[in-house]
């Protein structure tokens, strides 16, 4: 019997504050529907300087270990996927290992490729375990980021922050991955980047969406080719993509998932056996199916709408949101996942939801994590955004959480709650 490997459990961490997206819109003189309907946003996490990528990653990993009874001595790899690291040399993973007092016998490293970094870490961990090199040990992969574009910028309403920690093992209670079916597409483009020394990213918005959709097409077609060969999907009365119970997408803003789903359907409609019997206009109209979007995508976006853009963690927030609501109903069913990182690379992969998904999500208790947040005014949000990154406020973290306390002689010192 082929070894099953995948995600056993997950946990999230978010900043302690958020701003309501309608409040932000009114403060900017914008009709709120432009942000709520146009972007699909409801709330936006506001990270202060003490809530950096290390603090969020350590908080999520700590919650994962505590709530799932993880034996740290059986963890052989710790990977942090991030594009908002705190040092050019010292890995966020090394900080997390120290803060959680994890064993010295594990492999630790960061993975960086814009928003794809978390998926890069997940695939490295999955293939390490599947190869047998892990010798029965598990891995922790943490996706941790802060999306920051600055006050009064075009990207301001698409900011956010948080972390998702994944336990990867041979007991994939949440999601057993279809190893070897992955499709990948990468290109050298300048659609989004953050030069060294800058806190805010530089983005060519319309071009970045175009790059996302192009890379999605290549990655999905690569997955579909392998899935067809293994009879995971087939050309039939339903399109191959429709044979996945749900499809999750990288979500820099929630409406991007709609664009992505339309593009994926278009790939099937253009490539299918009956494509010559329809016009390009008819295929484009069919690709926009509201029924397909509602059935396969919409239910995964609740957490993303309440937290905002979390770069590497965005896809895995969608996974958490989906399984939080539908873990029991989806048990035994196959879902698809599309990860995208600017610069750029996309990877489409699939997996089967585990029978223990609902139980594991109950242990994650995502709603309780969000309920602890404080809604702040736009004025308070602006004050926090103007704070220098190297002078965190003296705030006490909640029990089980971490925050940056000070930077002394270039050393970052953290405190635990």
UniProtKB/TrEMBL annotation:
Signal peptide: none annotated. SUPFAM superfamilies: Thiolase-like. Pfam families: HMG_CoA_synt_C, HMG_CoA_synt_N. Keywords: Transferase. Residues 176-274, 288-388 form the Hydroxymethylglutaryl-coenzyme A synthase C-terminal domain. Residues 3-169 form the Hydroxymethylglutaryl-coenzyme A synthase N-terminal domain. GO terms for biological process: acetyl-CoA metabolic process. GO terms for molecular function: hydroxymethylglutaryl-CoA synthase activity. Belongs to the thiolase-like superfamily. HMG-CoA synthase family. This is Hydroxymethylglutaryl-CoA synthase. It comes from Archangium gephyra.
């Amino acid at each position: 019997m082929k070894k099953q490997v995948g995600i056993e459990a997950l946990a999230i961490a978010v900043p302690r504050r958020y701003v309501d997206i309608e409040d932000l819109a009114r403060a900017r003189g914008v009709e709120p529907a432009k942000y709520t309907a146009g972007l699909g946003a409801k709330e936006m996490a506001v990270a202060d300087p003490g809530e950096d990528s290390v603090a969020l990653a350590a908080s999520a990993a700590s919650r994962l270990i505590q709530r799932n009874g993880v034996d740290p001595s059986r963890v052989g790899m710790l990977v942090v996927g991030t594009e908002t690291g705190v040092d050019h040399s010292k890995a966020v993973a090394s900080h997390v290992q120290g803060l959680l007092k994890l064993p010295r016998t594990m492999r630790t490293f960061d993975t960086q490729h814009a928003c794809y970094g978390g998926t890069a870490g997940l695939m490295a961990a999955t293939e390490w375990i599947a190869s047998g090199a892990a010798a029965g040990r598990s891995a922790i992969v943490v996706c941790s980021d802060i999306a920051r574009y600055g006050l009064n910028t075009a990207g301001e309403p698409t900011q956010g922050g948080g972390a998702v920690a994944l336990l990867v093992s041979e007991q994939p209670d949440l999601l057993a991955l279809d190893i070897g079916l992955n499709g990948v597409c990468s290109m050298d483009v300048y659609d989004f980047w953050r030069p060294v020394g800058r806190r805010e990213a530089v983005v060519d918005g319309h071009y970045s969406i175009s790059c996302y959709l192009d890379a999605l097409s290549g990655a999905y077609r690569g997955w579909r080719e392998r899935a067809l060969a293994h009879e995971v999907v087939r050309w039939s009365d339903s399109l191959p993509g429709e044979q996945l119970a749900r499809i999750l997408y990288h979500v820099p803003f929630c409406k991007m998932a709609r664009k992505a789903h339309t593009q994926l359907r278009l790939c099937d409609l253009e490539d299918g056996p009956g494509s010559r019997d329809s016009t390009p206009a008819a295929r484009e109209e069919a690709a926009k199916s509201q029924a397909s979007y509602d059935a396969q995508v919409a239910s995964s976006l609740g957490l993303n709408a309440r937290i905002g853009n979390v770069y590497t963690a965005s896809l895995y927030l969608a996974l958490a949101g989906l399984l939080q609501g539908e873990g029991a109903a989806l048990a035994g069913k196959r879902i698809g996942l599309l990860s995208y990182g600017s610069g750029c690379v996309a990877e489409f992969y699939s997996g089967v939801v585990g029978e223990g998904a609902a139980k594991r999500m109950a242990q994650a208790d995502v709603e309780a994590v969000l309920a602890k947040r404080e809604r702040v005014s736009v004025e308070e949000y602006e004050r926090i955004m103007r704070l220098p990154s190297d002078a965190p406020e003296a705030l006490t973290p909640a029990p089980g959480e971490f925050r940056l306390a000070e930077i002394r002689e270039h050393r970052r010192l953290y405190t635990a709650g």
